[in-house]
Amino acid sequence: MPDADAETGTQAELGAGDPQSLGQSLGPLVREVCKGRLGEINWFRATWQHGGAATGYSTWELDDGRRVDVVVKLPVNFTEWFWTVSLGGVDHDRWDHACDNPTPRVLAGGEELGGYDLAWLVFERFSGPTLAGGLGKQDVRELLRAAAEFHARAQRVRPVSEAPPPRQEDWAVEIEQARDACRGDRIEDAQRWNVQLKQLSRSLPSLVARWRGRPIDTWCHGDLHGNNAMRRKAGAAPPGGDGEENGQSAGRCVLIDLALVHPGCWIEDALYLERLYWARPELLHGIKLVQMLSKCRKENGLAIEPGATELANIRRVLMAGTAPAFLATEGRPEHLAAALGVLERLMPVVTR
């Protein structure tokens, strides 16, 4: 499997243009390849999209003549194509029997289109909003259950042991950039930041070595949050409980956007989500994400190595310490204040 970020020159070039024009140009080719099953495509620019992919709504004819709502997307990078197809690919006569998939059901896709080296997908469309609109306590639980199921299924597709080593963050550079950002009056509480970052710099080699020695045991989703989760209205409830508590009446939680799947440690997905709510922890409804994901993984037969709490605290400290280095994206005063609080609370814990 190629590098997660790999993208051919042709695909990158096509994706760099106007997405809607790209879709209108290549849409007829997609319909031709789908041999009459794919209906007319309504291309649009999604508010949640940040890349150059063209996205459209259409319908797909199943073997029994029913038409189901689908999404057409092109181009997609290899990682998104591989995992979406590998985890969600279903035969037409199995459509109604794949409602427990924690990722979208896929009806068609390929790595080539009309002679172009270009990956594309046709997958099920979800009618409701993402979970981010009103993330309740049960939504958080279901999101983590879906993540654990994703971990288990991805491991069955391809063992993580066969993956290349994960990308290594350059923590030293980012911490130095954070220290630079704290000089002058660019952020509040600069002196408190200076004290914490100075201590973090002294302990950084040990912390980084401990983090890099973590078990690489999981295909992490890499972008786990409410905007990347939707509900499938039909089908069984997720495992791990009964009926309405697990969302049976509301619909099954499904993870979307698999473009950032990568090998790593399972706690990375939990901490990615946690970090988004550092400034508003009450929105997680008191759920401890690492512990909850650990429980969900056990329910899916996945191993939980000892030392997860220590590794999670090290990761929290490293992420918090880099926050000032990314003022353009993490410069909200409330987030920086929360990150500083994480440093002051956990630095003594991880350095003792």
Which properties best describe this structure?
single chain, alpha+beta, 42% helix, 2 domains, five-stranded antiparallel beta sheet, Phosphorylase Kinase, domain 1, 352 residues, 13% strand, disordered N terminus
Label the structural class. alpha+beta
Principal-axes shape call = elongated
**Number of H/I helices:** 11
Low-confidence stretches: 2-9, 236-249
How many separate structural domains?
A: 2
Helix content: 40-55%
Q: In percent, how much strand structure appears in the residues?
A: 5-15%
N-to-C series of helices and strands: HHEEEHEEHHHEEEEHHHHH
Please render the helix and strand layout as text.
Blueprint: H1 9-15, H2 19-33, E1 42-44, E2 54-61, E3 67-76, H3 78-88, E4 106-110, E5 119-124, H4 137-157, H5 171-181, H6 190-212, E6 218-220, E7 229-232, E8 252-255, E9 262-264, H7 267-276, H8 289-299, H9 308-322, H10 327-330, H11 333-351
Antiparallel strand pairs: 1-2, 2-3, 3-5, 4-5, 6-9, 7-8
Helix pairs in contact: 4-8, 5-6, 6-9, 6-11, 7-8, 7-9, 9-11
Task: Provide an overview of this structure.
The chain has helices spanning 9-15, 19-33, 78-88, 137-157, 171-181, 190-212, 267-276, 289-299, 308-322, 327-330, 333-351, and strands spanning 42-44, 54-61, 67-76, 106-110, 119-124, 218-220, 229-232, 252-255, 262-264. The chain is of the alpha+beta class and 352 residues long. It has two domains: 9-124, Phosphorylase Kinase, domain 1 (2-Layer Sandwich), CATH 3.30.200; 133-164 and 212-351, no CATH class. A five-stranded antiparallel β-sheet has the order 1-2-3-5-4. The two termini are 41 Å apart.
